[in-house]
Amino acid sequence: MTERTLVVDQLKFSYEGLFDTAELYKLIDGWFYEKGWDKRELMNEELVTPAGRQIRIVLEPWKTISDYFKLFMQVKLNIHDVKDVEIEKQGQKIKINQGEIKIIFNGYVLSDASGEWNQKPFWWFLSILANKYLFKENYGRAERWILSDVDDLYQKIKSFLNVYKYQFETTPITKQESRL
Which class for 149: exposed (0-12), middle (13-18), buried (19 or more C-beta within 10 A)? Predict the structure, then answer.
């Protein structure tokens, strides 16, 4: 069984305002592809309520950095009260989303990624010694790597949503109801 060490614990990000849900997901997915992470989408559900759509996405990407160490990240996106609005920008109407986004990041370092060292008690004991003395520098490198990648993704999302915050200075246009 692999040993999982929590490095990034519940890094939270909140945003309320205008955004594009599809573009946000595309940004996150593209970042994982660009950085060489393999991704698993654990959950992707949407619930339609009178207050708006509620979207919950849980991503669990991983990256193998050596035969012994693997990086593992958990990204939870909770998007509440999503409503479609039309914005006027430079004389053109644009459809966009409005709501509240909460994202939680967790980052882990997995040692003995293949689980070979835990099959027998003696090998397990040797893995403890190896982790403590032989692989200490490699573990530190893996720890810095996961910290750097989580921070990079966090800053990328923050910059992306900040663009939406200042890009549209007009107020939403309400749809006129047609009368019969």
Answer: buried
> CA torsion angle for 143, 144, 145, 146 (degrees, to 10)?
60
- Tokens 């999982």 identify what position? 4
Per DSSP, the three-state class of 39 is coil
Domain ranges for the chain, please list them.
Answer: 3-167
Predicted TM-score (pTM) of this structure:
0.78
Residue pointed to by tokens 């709501």: 99
DSSP string, 58-110: EE--EEE-SSSEEEEEEEEEEEEEEEEEEEEETTEEEEEEEEEEEEEEEEEEE
CA distance 111 to 22: 35
pLDDT per residue as tens digits for the range 26-53:
999 999 999 999 989 999 999 998 888 9
- What distance in Å separates the CA atoms of residue 58 and residue 106, rounded to the nearest whole number? 11
The residue length of the chain stands at 180
